[in-house]
Specification:
The structure holds three protein chains of three kinds.
Chain A lengths: L2 H32 L6 H22 L3 H28 L8 H21 L5 E2 L19 H23 L1 H11 L1 H6 L4 H27 L1 E2 L3 H16 L4 H22 L4 H15 L14
Antiparallel strand pairs in A: 1-2
Chain B lengths: L1 H21 L2 E8 L6 H20 L7 E8 L4 H14 L3 E3 L4 H14 L2 E4 L6 H4 L6 E3 L4 H15 L4 E6 L3 H17 L3 E7 L8 H10 L3 E5 L2 H13 L5 E4 L6 H7 L7 E5 L6 H14 L7 H18 L4 H10 L2 E3 L2 E5 L5 E2 L3 E7 L2 E5 L1
Helix pairs in contact in B: 2-12, 3-4, 6-7, 9-10, 12-13
Chain C lengths: L1 H22 E4 L4 E4 L1 H33 L7 H7 L1 H17 L6 H26 L7 H19 L3 H23 L4 H21 L1 H4 L20 H27 L2 H11 L1 H6 L4 H27 L9 H14 L4 H17 L7 H15 L17 H6 L5
Helix pairs in contact in C: 1-2, 5-10, 5-13, 5-14, 5-15, 6-7, 6-8, 6-13, 7-13, 10-13, 11-13, 14-15
Classes of the chains: A mainly alpha, B alpha/beta, C mainly alpha.
Chain lengths: 302, 370, 407
C-alpha cells in the first residue's frame, strides 16, 4: 500500500467532501422541515459564486487586499443568497404548502431553471475567471503539493461554520423550535412555534452555507459559470441522502463520505466511473439502509 | 359568391407574388448553438454570416439577388438539430452554414444529404463526417480531429521528447475522440508510453484526485482532449499541487477565454489550432468589420465561419444556379480567397490549404510555434 | 393604501436583491465596471406592478379553495365542457380527423414538431401510470426512453434488425428493465423512491457514455435507418410523415390502453395501493405483483417511444437522455394533472410546443418557460385537468335506512 498516495487522495477527498457537506446541509434542513427536495438549492450555490465574483471584481478595482476581499465577498454573498433563499421560499414553495408532494418538486425544478437563465440574461453564459483570493500560506508550503492553502481554508471554514450551525441548532431557542418543527410540525405549532418563521430561517441558513461553499470553491478552482450548480447540487443531494436525509450531522458525514469515496474511486479505479460510483453508492444505500448513515429507521405505524 | 371568388383570386395573387418575391433572394441557412451553454461557439458563426451577407448585399448581391439569412438555433442537441435542418430545408435554404457541434451535425446531415443541400461547417471536426463518404454534400473549413491529434502527438514526441504521456478527456464526443486518436498514435509511434487514459467529469467541483493520479503515474506530459473550462481547472490544480508536467491540448482550448480564465496558470500550455492567418489582409478586414458592426472582438471559429461563408457565396455566384451539383463542382474545382487563405475542397469535403499549427501561451497570448 | 405600502416594500426588496446581478457587470480583465442603472428601475417598477397581480391572484385562488371546501364543486369551464357527454364524441372525432390530416397541409418542420409532441404524449402517459395512477414518485423515465432508443440502434447495428422488429423488442426490454429496477426498490416509499430512480437514470446514461466499444460512447450511434414502408425508399419529408402516422397510432394505442388500464382490475388495485397499502394487503391485493406490473407497464411505453425517437432522428447519443429530460416528462404529468390522460396530452402540448413556438423570444424563452412552470404550480397545483375520480353512490334504501342516511 502506497501511503503517500493514499494520503494525497484522502486530503483531496476531504476538500471536495467539505464543499458537498456545506451544500448538503441546506438540502437536508429543508427536507427535514417541509419534506421538499429543493432542486433549486444548487443554483443558490451558483448564485453565491457569482455574488462573490461581482463583489471581488468591484473591490479588486478599488484596490483592496486579497484576504479582505475574500471575507467581504463571502459575507455579501451569504447575505444576498440568504435573501434569495428567503424570497424563493415565499414565491415558489409557501403558496404550495399542503398541495401534495409533486407540485413543490416541479416548482423547484422551474425555480432552478429560472435562476440559471436569470444569470445568463443578466450576466453572461460564458465562463468567467474568479480571482485568486486565497493567499499562499508559508506554513503550508512543505505540504502544498498535497494540501494547499485553499484546501486548508475550505476545510477549516466549513468545519467552523458547521460547528456554529450545530451549536445554533442545539442550544438556541430558534434551533429548538426548528428541531421541534422537524419532528412534528402540527404539534410544534400547537405549542406556539411560528412555523412560517422556522421555515424561513431554515431556507436562510441553508442558502447561507451554500453561498459560502460557492465563494470558496470558485476561488479554489478559479472560475464561475451559470451551470456549476447542477452537478454540485445533485452530488450534495446524494451526500444528504447518504448521511440520512433530515439529519444535519448526517449531511456533514455524508458529504465527507461521498467526497472521500469519489476521490478513492478516481485514484484506485478510474475517474471514468466517478459519477457512476457516486450514484451506485446512492442506490445501494437507499436499498439496504434507506435511513442513511446517521438516520434512525422510521417505524411505520399501522 | 362573386365576392368570395374575388377573395380567392386575391389570395392566389398574393401567394403568387410572395413566392415570386421569395425567389428574388438567395436563402442561406445558418444553424448552430445560439443559446445554451455552447452558445459561445455558435454565435460567432452567425456574426460572420451576417457580415459576409451585408458585404455582398451592399455590392448588389449575387447576380442581383440579395442574400437572406435563415438563422436556426439547435443548442448543439441532435434532436433539435434535425428540427432545425428540416425547417431550413422546407424554408428553401440553398446552402447551409453549419452545424457547429459534430454530434448535431451528424444528426442533421442525413436530412441535407437527402434534400441535396450543400452544408459547410466551420467547426465540426469529427473525422467520420468526411471520411465515411456517407455525406457527399458536406464540406468543412476546419481540419479533422485525427489530424489534430497526430500533430499533438508528433509535437510531444519530437519537440518535447515525452516518454510518458497521460491522456485525459472530458468524456465528450469531441474530447474523447481526440484522446482516443492520441492514444492510438502514441502506441503506433512506440517512442513513448501512455501512462494514463482517463476521462474527467465536466463540471465536477474539483479535479484534485485526477491530478494526484497524474503525479502517481509519473507522466511527464499531459494530453487533454476537451474544452477550455475543464482545461483551465486542470491546469490550475496541476500548478497548485506542484505537479510539473507539460500540457498539450486541442482546438477547444486554443481559445482566448482559456487564457483569461486560467490566468498565470495558462503560461506554457501548448494547444493546437487552425494556422495563424491573422496576417492576411482579408482576415484583418473581416475582424475590423466585426469590431465596427458588433463592437467586440470576434469569437471562436469566426475565421473558419467567415471563410466558409465566402466559399459558399463564391460557389453560388460561379455556379449561377441553386443546383447542388453545380455548387459542389465549383467548391471542388475552383480556388477561392478567404480569411483562412486560398482554399478549395477535396472530394471528401475537407478543405485543402487549411491545417493546424501548434501554439504556446507566452506572456498571456497564444504564439504560433514554427 | 395598505396595498400600496406592501407593493413598495416588495419593490424595494427586489431592487436590493437583484442589484448586484442586474446592475453591476464587472470586467476583471480590463478592470472596469459597467453600472446598468436602467435595470434597477426596470426591476423596481416591474416588481411593484407584479406584486399587485400576485396578491390578487393568490386571493382569488384562496377564495376558490374556500368555495371548493364549502361544498361548491369546483369545476373549470374547460373540464365541464369536456365532460359533457353530448360533446365528447364529436370533439374526439374532430380532433382525430385534424390529427390524421394535418401532415398533409403543413411543412416538414411542423410535422417534426408534432412528432416530438406525440412522443412526449406517449412518454407522459407511460409515466402517468407509475406516478399518477400508482402514486409512485419516479424521476428516471429518461433512462427507459434511452433503453428503447439504444435497443433499436444496437440491434440494428449489430444484427441488422429493422424498425418493426425492434419496436416490440424495445418496449419489452424497457419493461423488463423497469421490473428489474422495481424489484429491489419496492420497499421504498415516496421521496426515497424518487431518489433511487433519479440515481438509476443517471447510471444508465453514464454507462452508455462509458461503454464506448459497444454503444459508441459520447459520439453516439449514427445512421439509424428510418422505418421502411414495403421496401420503398422514402424521402426525408415522406419518411417524416410516415413516422408521424406511426407515432400517432402509437399515441392512440397508448391512450386507449392506459384508459382501459385505469379501470381494469390492476388499475383499481394500483389506485387503492396509492391510497392505503396496508388496507390493500389486508384485502388480499398482491402488492409486489401489482407494483411490478405498474413499473413494467409504464416503462414499456418509454421503450416504444425510444425506438421511434431513434428512428426519427437517425442519430442518438447519451446527451439526449439526461436528468433534465426526466424532469420534463414528470413536469408534463404534473402540469397536466396527475392521473388524468387528457391532462397529460395538454401538458405535453404546453411543454413541448410552447418552447418551440416561443423561438421568437429566443434568449427569453427559457426564462419564460421556467416562470410558467413555477406560476402554474403555485396557482393550479392540481394541474390543467385534474384527475376525475370515479364516485360511487349507494342507492339501496334499506342500507340507507340502516345507517341512518349518514353515508
Amino acid at each position: 500500500m502506497d501511503w503517500q498516495y493514499f494520503t494525497e487522495l484522502f486530503l483531496g477527498g476531504l476538500t471536495r467532501g467539505s464543499i458537498y457537506a456545506l451544500i448538503a446541509i441546506g438540502y437536508t434542513m429543508v427536507y427535514g422541515i417541509i419534506e421538499l427536495i429543493n432542486f433549486a438549492h444548487g443554483e443558490v450555490y451558483m448564485l453565491g459564486a457569482f455574488m462573490g465574483l461581482i463583489v471581488a471584481g468591484v473591490l479588486g478595482i478599488l484596490g483592496f487586499p486579497a484576504p479582505a476581499i475574500l471575507v467581504i465577498a463571502a459575507v455579501v454573498a451569504i447575505i444576498y443568497c440568504a435573501g434569495y433563499g428567503y424570497t424563493m421560499e415565499k414565491i415558489a414553495y409557501k403558496p404550495l404548502r399542503g398541495a401534495g408532494r409533486l407540485s413543490p418538486l416541479i416548482s423547484a425544478i422551474g425555480m432552478s431553471l429560472f435562476l440559471q437563465n436569470y444569470i445568463i440574461l443578466a450576466q453572461t453564459s460564458d465562463f468567467l475567471p474568479f480571482p485568486r483570493l486565497i493567499p499562499d500560506f508559508d506554513f503550508l508550503e512543505p505540504v502544498a503539493h498535497v494540501f494547499g492553502s485553499s484546501d486548508f481554508v475550505i476545510v477549516a471554514t466549513s468545519a467552523l461554520f458547521m460547528a456554529g450551525l450545530t451549536v445554533f441548532i442545539k442550544y438556541t431557542k430558534m434551533g429548538k423550535a426548528m428541531r421541534a418543527t422537524a419532528q412534528n410540525r402540527k404539534m410544534a405549532m400547537l405549542l406556539g412555534v411560528d412555523s412560517d418563521k422556522v421555515i424561513s430561517i431554515t431556507f436562510i441558513l441553508g442558502s447561507s452555507l451554500a453561498a459560502l461553499g460557492g465563494v470558496l470553491i470558485a476561488s479554489h478552482v478559479g472560475m464561475v459559470n451559470f451551470a456549476i450548480g447542477f452537478l454540485a447540487g445533485i452530488k450534495a443531494f446524494t451526500a444528504a441522502v447518504l448521511g440520512g436525509i433530515g439529519s444535519i450531522p448526517g449531511a456533514m458525514l455524508g458529504g465527507l463520505f461521498l467526497g472521500l469515496s469519489e476521490s478513492f474511486a478516481t485514484g484506485y479505479i478510474s475517474s471514468d466511473y466517478e459519477d457512476v460510483f457516486a450514484f451506485t453508492l446512492l442506490v445501494v444505500f437507499l436499498i439496504f439502509r434507506p435511513s442513511g448513515i446517521m438516520g434512525k429507521a422510521k417505524v411505520e405505524k399501522v | 359568391m362573386k365576392r368570395f371568388s374575388g377573395l380567392v383570386i386575391a389570395a392566389c395573387l398574393s401567394l403568387l407574388t410572395s413566392s415570386a418575391f421569395g425567389a428574388d433572394t438567395i436563402k442561406i441557412g445558418v444553424a448552430g448553438a445560439h443559446t445554451g451553454d455552447l452558445a459561445s461557439y455558435g454565435l460567432p458563426t452567425v456574426n460572420a454570416a451576417k457580415l459576409v451577407a451585408k458585404d455582398v448585399n451592399a455590392k448588389g448581391g449575387i447576380d442581383g439577388k440579395q442574400i437572406e439569412l435563415l438563422v436556426q438555433d439547435e443548442e448543439c442537441k441532435p434532436e433539435k438539430a434535425t428540427n432545425a435542418a428540416t425547417k431550413l430545408v422546407s424554408d428553401g435554404a440553398i446552402v447551409v452554414l453549419g452545424h457547429i457541434c459534430s454530434g448535431a451535425t451528424k444528426a442533421a446531415l442525413p436530412i441535407y444529404t437527402e434534400a441535396k443541400v450543400v452544408t459547410m461547417s466551420p467547426s465540426a471536426t469529427n473525422p467520420e463526417l468526411t471520411q465515411s463518404g456517407q455525406y457527399p454534400t458536406f464540406f468543412r473549413t476546419i481540419a479533422s480531429d485525427d489530424a489534430q491529434a497526430k500533430l499533438g502527438v508528433d509535437f510531444a514526441l519530437e519537440k518535447l521528447g515525452a516518454k510518458k504521456i497521460a491522456v485525459l478527456h472530458d468524456k465528450g464526443d469531441y474530447g474523447k475522440g481526440y484522446a482516443e486518436y492520441a492514444q492510438k498514435f502514441i502506441k503506433e509511434g512506440g517512442k513513448a508510453e501512455v501512462a494514463l487514459f482517463e476521462g474527467v467529469t465536466p463540471g465536477a467541483v474539483d479535479y484534485s484526485s485526477v491530478v494526484q493520479k497524474i503525479r502517481q503515474s509519473g507522466a511527464d506530459t499531459v494530453m487533454f482532449g476537451g474544452y477550455h473550462p475543464e482545461a483551465s481547472k486542470i491546469v490550475a490544480q496541476l500548478k497548485k499541487k506542484r505537479v510539473d508536467v507539460k500540457f498539450i491540448s486541442d482546438d477547444g482550448v486554443k481559445d482566448d477565454t482559456f487564457i483569461k480564465v486560467a490566468g498565470a496558470d495558462a503560461e506554457g500550455v501548448y494547444a493546437s489550432g487552425p494556422q495563424d492567418v491573422s496576417g492576411l489582409e482579408m482576415n484583418k478586414a473581416a475582424k475590423a468589420a466585426h469590431m465596427a458592426e458588433f463592437g467586440t472582438e470576434p469569437g471562436a471559429f469566426f475565421d473558419a465561419a467567415y471563410a466558409a461563408m465566402q466559399a459558399l457565396v463564391n460557389a453560388i455566384d460561379k455556379a449561377d444556379s441553386a443546383d447542388a451539383d453545380k455548387i459542389m463542382n465549383v467548391l471542388r474545382t475552383e480556388k477561392v480567397d478567404t480569411t483562412v487563405g486560398t482554399i478549395k475542397f477535396d472530394a471528401r469535403g475537407d478543405a485543402e490549404g487549411v491545417g493546424f499549427s501548434m501554439y504556446q501561451v507566452q506572456n498571456g497570448a497564444y504564439v504560433e510555434l514554427k | 393604501m395598505n396595498e400600496l405600502i406592501k407593493s413598495i416594500q416588495v419593490s424595494i426588496w427586489f431592487m436590493f436583491l437583484t442589484f448586484p446581478i442586474m446592475v453591476i457587470r464587472v470586467n476583471a480583465i480590463e478592470k472596469s465596471v459597467i453600472w446598468r442603472w436602467e435595470n434597477l428601475a426596470l426591476v423596481g417598477v416591474g416588481s411593484f406592478v407584479l406584486s399587485f397581480i400576485w396578491r390578487w391572484a393568490l386571493r382569488r385562488k384562496e377564495a376558490g379553495d374556500a368555495a371548493a371546501a364549502s361544498g361548491g364543486k369546483e369545476a373549470g369551464r374547460l373540464s365541464a365542457l369536456l365532460e359533457n357527454p353530448a360533446l365528447r364524441l364529436p370533439i374526439q372525432v374532430v380532433l382525430l380527423a385534424v390529427f390524421c390530416t394535418i401532415p398533409l397541409f403543413v411543412t416538414t418542420y411542423q410535422t417534426n414538431i408534432l412528432i416530438s409532441f406525440l412522443l412526449y404524449v406517449v412518454l407522459g402517459l407511460g409515466l402517468n401510470v407509475i406516478v399518477g395512477v400508482a402514486g409512485l414518485l419516479f424521476l428516471g423515465h429518461a433512462a427507459f426512453y434511452a433503453i428503447g432508443a439504444y435497443s433499436y440502434a444496437l440491434l440494428n447495428q449489430y444484427f441488422g434488425l429493422g424498425f418493426w422488429v425492434a419496436l416490440p423488442i424495445g418496449g419489452v426490454v424497457a419493461a423488463l428493465a423497469g421490473v428489474a429496477l422495481a424489484f429491489p426498490v419496492l420497499r421504498l416509499r415516496g421521496d426515497y423512491l424518487a431518489i433511487v430512480t433519479l440515481g438509476f437514470g443517471e447510471i444508465v446514461r453514464l454507462l452508455l457514455e462509458n461503454f464506448s466499444d459497444i454503444t459508441g460512447g459520447p459520439s453516439g450511434i449514427s445512421n439509424i435507418p428510418r422505418p421502411g414502408l414495403l421496401d420503398m425508399q422514402l424521402s426525408v419529408a415522406g419518411a417524416n410523415i410516415y413516422i408521424y402516422y406511426i407515432v400517432l397510432a402509437l399515441a392512440l394505442v397508448t391512450i386507449v390502453a392506459v384508459t382501459r388500464l385505469k379501470d381494469s382490475r390492476i388499475g383499481r388495485a394500483l389506485q387503492a395501493l396509492r391510497e392505503d397499502e396496508i388496507a390493500c394487503e389486508a384485502m388480499g391485493i398482491d402488492r409486489v405483483g401489482v407494483k411490478l406490473m405498474a413499473f413494467g407497464l409504464g416503462t414499456a411505453w418509454a421503450g416504444f417511444a425510444g425506438v421511434v425517437f431513434a428512428a426519427k432522428t437517425t442519430f442518438i447519443n447519451p446527451a439526449s437522455f439526461t436528468f433534465f429530460e426526466s424532469a420534463i416528462i414528470l413536469s408534463i404529468v404534473v402540469l397536466g394533472g396527475m392521473g388524468s390522460n387528457l391532462g397529460v396530452i395538454l401538458g405535453s402540448a404546453f411543454l413541448v410546443l410552447l418552447p418551440e413556438y416561443m423561438r421568437a423570444f429566443s434568449e427569453y424563452r427559457m426564462i419564460l418557460f421556467a416562470t410558467a412552470m413555477v406560476l402554474m404550480m403555485v396557482f393550479r397545483p392540481q394541474g390543467l385537468i385534474p384527475e376525475k375520480r370515479k364516485t360511487y353512490t349507494v342507492s339501496d334504501p334499506e342500507l340507507n335506512a340502516a345507517t341512518g342516511g349518514q353515508n
